[in-house]
Amino acid sequence: MSSVAPPAGAHRADLPDDLAVKFAAFREVLRSMERVVVAFSGGADSALVAEVASATLGAEAASIVTAVSPSLAATELADAEHLATERGWHWRGVPTDEMENAAYRRNDALRCYHCKDALMDALAPIAEHEAATVVLGVNVDDLGEHRPGQRAAAARGARFPMVEAELTKHDVRALSRHLGLRTWDKPAAACLASRLPYGTPVTLERLSGVERAEAALRRLGFAELRVRHEGDIARIEVPLGDLEGILAQRVAVVEAVRRSGYRWVTLDLEGLRSGNLNERLEGTGPATD
User: Among 143, 133, 193, 195, which residue's Cα sits nearest to residue 166?
Assistant: First the structure.
């Protein structure tokens, strides 16, 4: 088995002692499984799992799999494949069929449960064929959030090696940077369905509208954003530091979003808040969407 090699110029001493201990524990958890199927969404968390699993177990013992569905933006899928090629991972994309499930399309508070159940439907046969364990990129900071998808995956036998190694979100960023992963500072980018308020049915048209609007705003230079779908209204969220930039390009922003199918374009003055749609659910905390 190979070991994880840091980027040129980096040394193990670059890691604080506590993080080095967690890193060793993370690798040991993966090593104990021998073979894994990594659910790779393209984000920082799952990218770290993919990198460390591939390096610790060897590429042939670590299948890196991205779920392909209408809720994954085309740019995210392309970036996931590019990153896998860059790092030499054993990668593939597999289709998932959550859109065939009426319970998922209904978009209630358990939407993510149905989504992860569909993901496990796609990954479980691969894991069985390869005598492997499905692993997900969940860190300990995720555990207190409203994430029914975690329950669905765990119920189907998936494991969360970063949780077992007690890695936090900050640890994920630090280790990713140490290992030369370009995702170390990548903004969180949850699925497109997370832009629809609970109770608004998930449709291909709505997902496509959100995707087009967000892509258009990124072309205007806004890297971190959400376009929240509120019927005919698009509610734009950007970090507070980008509010003035949005206003400075007001005409272009309005035109771009309207071309994506929205009649009204609004700017949320509270700024980007991950998981703020969950605030409408009594008794739940935020999630990264």
Answer: 143
The model's pLDDT over 181-213, given as tens digits with 9 standing for 90+, comes to 999 999 988 899 999 999 999 999 999 999 999
CA distance 67 to 77: 9
Task: Enter the tokens of residue 92.
Answer: 């593939």
pTM summary value: 0.89
| Cα three-residue angle 243-246-251, rounded to 5 degrees | 150
Which pLDDT value is given to residue 273?
A: 82
First to last CA, the chain: 36
The Cα 259–Cα 183 span in angstroms is 30
Alpha helices (runs of H) in the chain, residue ranges in sequence order: 17-33, 44-57, 74-87, 102-106, 111-129, 148-155, 161-164, 169-178, 204-219, 243-248, 250-259
Q: How many helices, marked H, and strands, marked E, lie in the chain?
A: 11, 7
pLDDT for the residue 188: 86
Q: Up-side HSE of residue 232: CA atoms within 13 Å toward CB?
A: 2
Identify the band that residue 288 occupies on the pLDDT scale cut at 50, 70 and 90: very low
pLDDT at 47: 98
**Which pLDDT score, from 0 to 100, does residue 283 have?**
44
Alpha-carbon span 188 to 42, nearest angstrom: 10
The widest CA-to-CA distance across the chain, in whole angstroms, is 56
Q: Could you tell me the two tokens for 223?
A: 């890297």
Q: List Cα–Cα distances, 118 to 3, 19, 33, 67, 111, in angstroms.
A: 33, 34, 23, 9, 11
Tokens matching residue 284:
């739940």
Handedness of CA 13, 16, 17, 21 (dihedral sign): negative
**What is the three-class DSSP state of 71?**
coil
